[in-house]
Amino acid sequence: MSLPMLVAAALFVGVLAYALFGGADFGSGFYDLTAGSATRGAELRTLVDHSIGPVWEANHVWLIYVLVMWWTAFPETFASTMSTLIFPMLFALLGIVLRGASFAFRKYSATLGQARLFGAVFASSSIVTPFFLGAVAGAIASGRVPATGRGDLWTSWLTPTSLFGGLIAVGTCAFLAGTFLTADAVRSGHEALSEQLRRRSLAVGLVTGAVVFAALVPLTRDAPTLTEGLAGRAAPLVVLSALAGTATLVLLVRRRPAEARVTAVTAVASVILGWGVAQYPYLLVDEITIADAAGAPATLRALMVAVVLAGIIVVPALVYLFRLTQSESWSRH
Amino acid sequence: MTVPDLALQLLTAEEPAGLLPAREQMALSLGWHIILACFGVAFPTMIFVVHRRGIVRDDPVALDLAKRWSKVSAVLFAIGAVSGTVLSFEMGLLWPGLMGPFGDVLGLPFAFEGLSFFIEAIFLGIYLYGWGRLPPRRHLLMLVPMAIAGVVGTFCVISVNAWMNAPAGFRMVDGEVTDVNPWAAMFNDLVWLQFAHMWVAAFMVVGFLVSGVYAVGMLRGRRDPHHRLGFLVPFVFATVAALAQPVIGHLLGGNLGDRQPAKLAAFELAETTESPSPLRIGGLLIDGEVRWAIDIPVLGSLIAQNSFSAPVPGLDTIPVDERPPVNLTHWAFQVMVGIGTLLFLAVLLFWFVRWRGRDLLENRWFLRFAVAAGPLAVLALEAGWVATEVGRQPWVVYGVLRTADAAGSNSWLWWLLAATVVVYAGMTVGAVVILRSMARRWREGETELPSPYGPESAEEVAR
User: Fold this and answer.
1) What is the pTM of this model?
2) How far apart are CA A52 and CA A109, in angstroms?
3) Cross-chain CB nearest to B110 (options A68, A150, A318)
4) Does any CB of chain B come closer than 8 Å to the CB of residue A107?
5) A280: helix, coil or strand?
6) Which is nearest to B453 in space by CA: A244, A220, A32?
7) Residues of B in contact with A153 (CB under 8 A)
């Protein structure tokens, strides 16, 4: 594998990790938002607080990892993407800011009024952010970002591909979060809550599946290169995703949320991976390939040092954090 | 400098439409983030000291402080993380002309900064939720990676800024960037001293701010061991930092005359080259003439050039289109040095008097000063950063890339700036409200601070 490909793969691992870990965090906002009144939703909101509290900041760093890898390894495409997609990027950024701040504020709110305000901001911005990030992905995947310079500020992302990209991102985040929260609720012994979450996750899964299905028609016209890749090279991943998604629904119906977590992650990961494989070898679809977009070779080699260090230092620490938060003694309270 | 004067100076420049709002946007978000970043860098070490004391000496007061500070750091770290994310977006959104050509030159330290931020976020999560769940000693150790990550992260971010001041690790051939060596860019000539200056500044800011909080309590008559320890631990950190800072600053400024003569001339308000140069305190440059300044003969040469006669090169040696905004740079520099000196003297006085057997914590005027010291340290930090950044103008990469060429052409960025002001103001208010309510509830004896969404409160609501 060539050096630019290696770096692109490492960058894509970041995209994948952010979609899964960050995605599950964002999705929790959906259930938080729709949990009902302060009294009725208290139990669920406490669960959300508890299950994403220790991990959300670490999950959020994947985004920074992706941005930094991108501008260091493929600087011109980063500049052109940022200039072209400045609006969806800004909306996503606004969501990230409001969400992070208000999540922290809510935890230490003194009054119910404050907590409701911050909670509403947290939950709604948790939906805004993945939508616009999905729209950004759609714009890249449908070939609307030029290799250098700036594309159109509006028509580059106000397209069917971006719109469906956004909806699918919101849906998959909520689906992931739903299965994880259901499993969390079971583990911490909240039976009624887990039952409620299970039903809602099922509904979210069905709707998301329908949206993905519906997206196929406009996608063929709006993003031909991507469609070709999805139907060709990435087809096995698309099939895997469909199977894993269905399996998740079945497992949820059968009240086995712990196993459903695995299939849900598989389903979402293979969608994201499918996107990457489908648009290979392009970095910006129809515009520039990974090899042509790469920056200085010395920098790429140095970046691989950073990636290896991340593997040695960050990954074990991350595993420790996740093991702690998924353990019995941290689940109680 | 007066505000209208400052505004005039900023507005009269003839530049692309995107430049001024982009600069203001960057200034606002970076100036805001830099304070929170200080907490990320310095607070874990201070928490470690009190937490360790709590465990080793079985001291409930120290342990209580560690618990409270960790909750405060949770709030500050969260908004620091999001304002840091804003910056990484802004690098591309506001400065495509920098990130496109130079992204692969300056990117490596950012990658390592990302790693250290990762470590900090992971261990913060473990530490915050580890109270009562991890064995005490292991729990304490979770602060160590955070403190180390703070050091590494500071080094990396400052490395990029030092590179902008002393570019290295690439060559320009016919306007193209070639021969990129990211390691040489990262370990440029300025990085170590600039890092030391910023790292120590972080301990000054956090040390004085936190001790100031307990000084307020003592002024209000709360003179218990809790307040004494809460004051003294951060104050010791601030003391060491305040004493070291002038030395580092002087070393950093050492050969500024050779490196960035325009910046030095602006710092010293040197309109013409004088031999020997005076130290110029205060003053404004109006129509090419220095007015209202107090000159101390020879001292300028002595401080800036380590010589009794070597002059500070004047602005008249610098082409007009390569001069920074002089008054702003000069005043920012003087505010930084002035406050730094004041804090240096104040901590010396405190420890000297204490050595002679008197405790200045009994003195209301000293306590009032201790309350002001935090905001003053923040002001010095911001001023120092303005001095180095504005003093480098009109270059974003010194001698290589002009700031005007790095900016995009978005005239509507003013709207973005307005929106940012609103969001940041909201975040500031939110943080202040939450932190104050935390302090109030702690004073009232609520140690655990349950969320109002918690099951207990929910039952109350139901009743």
Assistant:
1) 0.91
2) 17
3) A68
4) yes
5) coil
6) A32
7) none
